[in-house]
Design brief:
Elements: E1 2-7, H1 10-16, H2 20-27, E2 32-37, H3 38-41, E3 49-51, E4 59-61, H4 63-76, E5 81-91, H5 94-101, E6 105-109, H6 118-124, E7 127-130, H7 140-152, H8 161-165, E8 184-185, E9 188-189, H9 199-217, H10 229-242, E10 247-252, E11 256-257, E12 263-264, H11 270-282, E13 287-291, H12 295-311, H13 320-324, E14 327-330, H14 333-344, E15 349-352, H15 364-373, E16 378-383, H16 390-395, E17 398-399, H17 414-426
Helix pairs in contact: 1-7, 4-6, 5-7, 9-10, 11-17, 15-17
The chain binds S-adenosylmethionine (SAM).
């Protein structure tokens, strides 16, 4: 593979290729590295940058001053693919390294200053790549990272093929722990199974550790990992054992807003009883409180529940009655809060929900993290009608941002909103 680079400081890149596996790969001609310098190639020492249009400060790599350099590289390397390094590009990962290692000829272009005049990208860029969500002063170090990780994927560069195959990220998992001699040092010993010589058991041990490490450190990767059904169930079990089990939801029928922003009481909806109970059970919610100030409506809810209670005798554990058992009917949100407080000796943190944008709303990743960090009770409050009254909104500790699509229309039924919100907070991605 031939890797060309174009940068302001080619020495940084040259030096990086002098060491270890990379220098051997160059020595064995598995890769050829050819470094172009923006300044050596530029016309009459005119430089390569110019002032930025608009009022923002900072110089920009000029289209006019570098155009010929790109043309020259294209002439020298007719089939080359231009990779521009930029914080605005796709985030680089192992799969991209693997894909790029199949190319015969690439040219990695490093920016400096405020980056490239957009017209350079329009004309020459095949891939725009970022190495992460932070800003470097120039692309040379990023070039070194690309050269290193792409080269490792080329056959023969890393001595043992299995070292690469077993690497973290190859199967969207990270590796478990590794050990070396001695067997015991400072009372810390190597897991016995690794000394057993039984390859099958060692492979199982490593696989299970790798999956557990991925779950604990990079759960996001598991979405793309290939998991056997037993592995998936085992990971879910581990995750369940770590989750905060003290999360509650409440469906409020009073005080509620109507379309004119007046305070009203809404009536009970049978579908909300069943469907929300099933969502709550699916996402591991401890109890689902239905609050209604009118006795007749509470009696109606009890009647629905008693029907499901009878079902208990003849249905299996996946049946709806399991979900309906988690419902508690109360007169008001205040009563639901006292009930939780009585049992858990702590007032729950109140999280309000609303379909409208409001000041100081919080995002899902913040609340998701908070709920799992602090194992105290949390109560997520859902409204009916046109939403929770101002008085309830003001009593909440946090208000979640509305869920919805890109359209202005946002009128989800509360049971749909509950399901979506619970999935965002407690959904499993593998
Ligand atoms: C100071 S940066 C320009 C940043 C630009 N002002 C912005 O906010 O997008 C100069 C050059 O460093 C390189 N660079 C900086 N951060 C990078 C990153 N995260 N990934 C890849 N290249 C990066 C790029 O080549 C970029 O053109």
């Amino acid at each position: 593979m031939k890797i060309n680079t174009l940068s302001v400081f080619p020495e940084i890149i040259k030096n990086n290729c002098k060491y270890g596996v990379l220098s051997k790969a160059v020595g064995k001609k598995l890769i050829t590295i050819n470094n172009y310098s923006f300044f050596t190639e530029a016309d009459n020492n005119k430089g390569i940058d110019d002032e930025q249009y608009g009022h923002n400060p900072g110089m920009v790599i000029s289209y006019e001053k570098t155009f010929k350099i790109f043309k020259k590289i294209k002439k020298n390397e007719p089939k080359t693919k231009f990779i521009f390094l930029s914080p605005k590009g796709h985030i680089f990962n192992n799969q991209m390294a693997k894909d790029l290692s199949n190319e015969k000829n690439i040219t990695i272009v490093s920016g400096r200053y405020e980056g490239f005049d957009e017209r350079i990208l329009e004309e020459f860029c095949d891939f725009e790549i970022s190495i992460g969500d932070y800003i470097l002063t120039g692309g040379e170090l990023a070039t070194c990272i690309l050269i290193d990780s792409i080269s490792r994927m080329i056959k023969g560069v890393v001595g043992k093929k299995n070292s690469v195959i077993n690497d973290s990220f190859m199967d969207s998992t990270i590796k478990g722990p590794v050990y070396t001699k001695p067997k015991i040092f400072k009372n810390k010993s190597v897991p016995k199974i690794l000394l057993s010589g039984n390859h099958k058991n060692i492979d199982n041990f490593n696989r299970n550790n790798s999956l557990e490490y991925t779950l604990n450190k990079r759960e996001d990767l598991l979405e793309n990992a290939t998991l056997a059904p037993t592995e998936r169930e085992n990971l879910r079990k581990i995750k369940r054992s770590k989750l905060n089990n003290n999360v509650f939801i409440a469906l409020v029928h009073h005080p509620i807003k109507n379309i004119k922003n007046e305070t009203i009481t809404t009536s009970l909806t049978n579908l909300d009883i069943q469907d929300i109970a099933r969502s709550a059970r699916t996402y591991g919610i401890n109890k689902y409180y239905i609050t209604h100030p009118i006795l007749e409506q509470r009696k109606l809810a009890e009647k629905v529940l008693s029907f499901w209670d009878n079902e208990k005798k003849r249905k299996n554990e996946n049946s709806k009655h399991v979900a309906m058992n988690n419902i508690i009917i109360k007169k008001s949100l205040k009563e639901a809060i006292s009930n939780i407080k009585k049992e858990y000796k702590q007032k729950p943190i109140l999280i309000g929900t609303d379909a409208n944008e409001m000041k100081n709303m919080v995002d899902y990743s913040f609340i998701k993290h908070k709920i799992q960090e602090e194992k105290r009770p949390y109560l997520i409050v859902f409204g009916t009608g046109w939403g929770l009254s101002q008085e309830i909104i003001e009593s909440c500790d946090y208000i979640l941002k509305p869920v919805g699509g890109y359209d202005k229309y946002n009128h989800l039924s509360v049971r749909s909103a509950v399901a979506i919100i619970l999935d965002k907070l407690f959904g499993c991605n593998f």
